[in-house]
Design goal:
Pfam families: Utp25_C, UTP25_NTPase-like. It is found in: Nucleus, Nucleolus. Interacts with CAPN3; the interaction is required for CAPN3 translocation to the nucleolus. The protein has 29 helices and 18 strands. Among the domains are: about 265-350 and about 360-415 and about 425-575, P-loop containing nucleotide triphosphate hydrolases (Rossmann fold, 3-Layer(aba) Sandwich); about 580-770, P-loop containing nucleotide triphosphate hydrolases (Rossmann fold, 3-Layer(aba) Sandwich), CATH 3.40.50.300. The radius of gyration is 33 Å and the shape is elongated. With about 775 residues, the chain is an alpha/beta fold. The strands form 2 sheets. Strands 1-2-11-3-10-9-4-8-6-7-5 form an 11-stranded mixed beta sheet. A 7-stranded mixed beta sheet has the order 14-15-13-16-17-12-18, with helices on both faces.
């Protein structure tokens, strides 16, 4: 077969049918080929048995690739009315010629000029392309990094990152190519509902997302201080409402609680009572039988799209009902947002070509809307199970979940892995249940009848990840493989069990907060005519709702809520003060000596505490009589500093931290119990992750107050498991400063804390036990 003409000459002298074939298949019909008059040498080659089959497969593969590229092109140009008019004027020969020339020019720039020879070369190229495309699916199935869009190449020469696209399921899960008719059988009802909705709808979702801030309001939020007010609710207790805008400062709890007032999406109204029924008791009132008292008050705040900080989450008591409440809120937000996009797709499809309107601005710069930060894989597993239960109306109408088997394999746990004789406190068992791997991230795409797990981030509605999982994908400045554009349009941030991140690495949380709601570096095929104006103005952080749940109040967690949350609707923080403290749970008769450290400022506390310890506390315990002394150190950096000092002074001590090997731990515990080592340095993170019972303690020193208040009573009560010596020989010494007010109140109670901080005395003594 002779060489075909290329370039612009090909479009000339062709019939309408030939031009159509050229536009569809990117090549001229073989009938129209002109054979050169010069005879060519005949080459004889042997073909394999499956040559015809491979050629056919490669041809079909080429067609699939052409279609996918065409759909990707449509996705990037879907907002242009000119492109729509060009498709409608398909009859025009002049436009067909221009398209043909442009397509040939682009093909000519990609292929070598001499590569238009025989069929052998073309089949070889097609077989190579087929091999490349055939390798992609197994890699994506085996590696989570590629399947969830994690390991990406951020080469600036590439306009799009292939690992963040979803070619296989693009048509099924794409919001831009689906319509309400395909998603919901009651399309007419949805249209009637949307047409009857007024500008100021009572739906909290529409009120929050449709609000367009003015520049004066944004400047006021970012510069002025917040005004606050207090209120007391029956279950949550003392609430602090704060907002820069005065009209968002207060919130009252409705006495009557009706499901219709919550504006839940259709499937959730019927599924929520069934999913939540095991948390309900017979004492619940009929009016709010679908919510527990705690869920009712929490969801009332969540549904107003205010930021919420709840520092009384307990894995044993209320952890699961809180998880169900925020899962309901997040899923309700996603279903409403997607339904709005699908409805506007149908409206825009029926719109006359050439008309432009801003009524269809219903999206962000990227698709992910909800980011859920949880500490372990087990937490992500439970969240996904809640989502599936909320979307399944009944047994007949079950939701289609893709990659479910793989998800259970990677996020589930084997019950045989846990030793049967391992005894730990109940709160430890509740926190570390299931798969406790802390490096994960997974994208979830949701439509009303289907859910896709391991969806690429730019095709996901919800991202569930750990702080470490987010840190490894965000990366640091200078790294080639990093991406955080998918965080640009997060509308809801849920940080659950924030106290555990203090034991993991709090820097990962801070790093995440610095990269959320930033303008993306790439457009990622977004239709800018559908993007909300606040997102285009880089005001998305003022619309983001942050839900923060923790088991305790800590200055670092408070800083996240106060310095990184800018919601224009305001904030709500639960601020209940502890009345008794964990010292009331100490069962051994023990004198507790609290010694105050005088520091000039917060930055000098670390050095002041160390100097106070080596000058005033440590000399009292150097005597051999004060043996079996355990020094509890919350900070790892303080632990290293003390360890180095003990080595320098050649003190008789041993040490255990979270990085100590198991054999060294056994030796250290044994030597401390037998009295071979006078001191034992113990880090808080080791105690958090292991919770070993340290035997042989006679003298206990808290170098700093523990992060978890119940660790104080737990360590004090370890003395009763030591031996039969007289209780009076046991001692407990605590170092604290005025900057430890929250931790001190959690240990001794609010009344004693006020007395200790206001008193001029630096030493305070309390005795626990039978004669307290």
């Amino acid at each position: 077969m002779g060489k075909r003409r290329g370039g612009r000459e090909l479009a000339r002298g062709l019939s309408k049918r030939q031009k159509k074939h050229l536009r569809q298949f990117g090549e001229q019909h073989p009938v129209c080929d002109r054979v050169s008059g010069r005879p060519e040498a005949t080459q004889i080659c042997e073909l394999s048995d499956n040559s015809d089959k491979s050629s056919a497969e490669s041809d079909s593969e080429t067609e699939v690739e052409q279609v996918s590229v065409y759909h990707k092109l449509l996705a990037t140009l879907k907002a242009s009315p000119e492109s729509e008019s060009e498709e409608e004027e398909d009859e025009s020969e002049s436009e067909e010629a221009e398209e043909s020339e442009a397509e040939l020019d682009s093909k000519g720039s990609q292929e070598p000029k001499e590569a238009v020879g025989g069929e052998e070369d073309q089949n070889g190229l097609q077989e190579q392309e087929e091999e490349v495309t055939a390798k992609d699916p197994p890699e994506q199935a085996l590696g989570q990094e590629q399947a969830d869009g994690v390991e990406t190449s951020c080469d600036p020469n590439h306009g799009a990152i292939e690992e963040f696209t979803d070619l296989k399921h693009e048509a099924e899960f794409s919001l831009e190519t689906n319509f309400m008719e395909e998603e919901s059988g009651d399309c007419d009802a949805d249209r009637r509902e949307s047409n009857s909705s007024q500008a100021f709808s009572e739906d909290p979702f529409k009120q929050h997302m449709d609000k367009e801030l003015e520049e004066k309001e944004v400047e006021k939020i970012s510069t002025l201080s917040k005004t606050s007010s207090q209120s007391k609710w029956p279950r949550l207790g003392q609430l602090i409402f704060s907002s820069t805008l005065e009209k968002h400062t207060t919130l009252k709890l409705d006495k009557e609680f009706n499901m219709k007032q919550l504006y839940l999406h259709k499937p959730l109204e019927s599924t929520w009572p069934k999913v939540n029924k095991h948390f309900l008791s017979s004492a619940s009132k009929p009016s709010d039988s679908s919510f527990t008292p705690l869920q009712r008050e929490l969801f009332s705040i969540m549904n107003t799209y205010r930021d919420l900080f709840y520092p009384e989450r307990n894995a044993l008591t209320n952890g699961e009902e809180i998880r169900h409440a925020y899962c309901l809120h997040a899923l309700n937000h996603i279903l409403k947002a997607n339904a709005q996009v699908l409805s506007n797709n149908a409206k825009k499809r029926d719109q006359k070509p050439g008309t432009d309107s801003d009524d269809f601005r219903d999206q962000g710069l990227t698709r992910p809307k909800v980011l859920m930060i949880v500490p372990f894989r087990e937490c992500a597993l439970r969240i996904v199970h809640i989502f599936i239960s909320l979307l399944e109306v009944n047994e007949k109408r079950k939701i289609d979940v893709s990659n479910k088997k793989r998800f259970k394999g990677e996020f589930g746990s084997d019950p045989d892995e846990k030793p049967p004789n391992l005894k730990r406190p109940e709160d430890y068992e509740a926190v570390f249940a299931g798969n406790i791997d802390d490096h994960f991230r997974i994208g979830v795409a949701i439509l009303q009848k289907s859910m896709r797990l391991y969806a690429p981030f730019y095709s996901s509605d919800i991202i569930i990840a750990s702080p470490l999982g987010m840190r490894t994908i965000i990366g640091t400045e200078g790294e080639k493989k990093r991406d955080f554009d998918f965080l640009s349009s997060i509308e809801m941030l849920i940080i659950d069990q924030a106290d555990i991140y203090l034991m993991q690495n709090w820097e990962h949380v801070l790093h995440l907060m610095k990269h959320i709601n930033l303008l993306p570096l790439d457009s990622h095929g977004v239709d800018f005519s559908r993007v909300r104006m606040p997102n285009l103005n880089n005001w998305s952080k003022y619309y983001r709702q942050t839900l923060l749940f923790s088991a305790l109040q800590d200055p670092q967690i408070n800083a996240i809520f106060n310095k990184h949350c800018f919601n224009y609707t305001g904030q709500v923080a639960v601020r209940n003060v502890p009345l008794s403290g964990s010292i009331s749970r100490v069962v051994v008769q023990l004198p507790h000596v609290f010694r105050r450290i005088e520091a000039e400022n917060l930055t000098s506390v670390i050095d002041t505490r160390f100097q106070f310890f080596i000058d005033n506390v440590l000399p009292e315990y150097r005597d051999a009589i004060m043996s079996h002394t355990l020094i509890y150190v919350p900070s790892y950096f303080d632990y290293v500093r003390l360890r180095n000092y003990f080595k320098k002074e050649e003190l008789n001590f041993t040490h255990i931290c979270e990085y100590t090997k198991k054999a060294s731990i056994c030796r250290a515990r044994r030597s401390f119990l037998k009295g071979e080592k006078q001191f034992l340095l113990l880090t808080e993170r080791f105690h958090f992750y292991k919770r070993y019972t340290i035997k042989g303690i006679r003298n206990l020193i808290f170098y700093e107050l523990p992060t978890y208040s119940h660790f104080y009573s737990e360590l004090c009560n370890m003395m009763k498991a030591t031996d039969n010596r007289v209780d009076a020989t046991w001692t407990c010494t605590v170092l604290y400063s005025k900057y430890d007010a929250q931790k001190l109140a959690a240990v001794v109670g609010i009344d004693r804390t006020a007395q200790m901080l206001q008193s001029k005395k630096n030493v305070h003594l309390f005795v626990t036990g039978e004669n307290e």
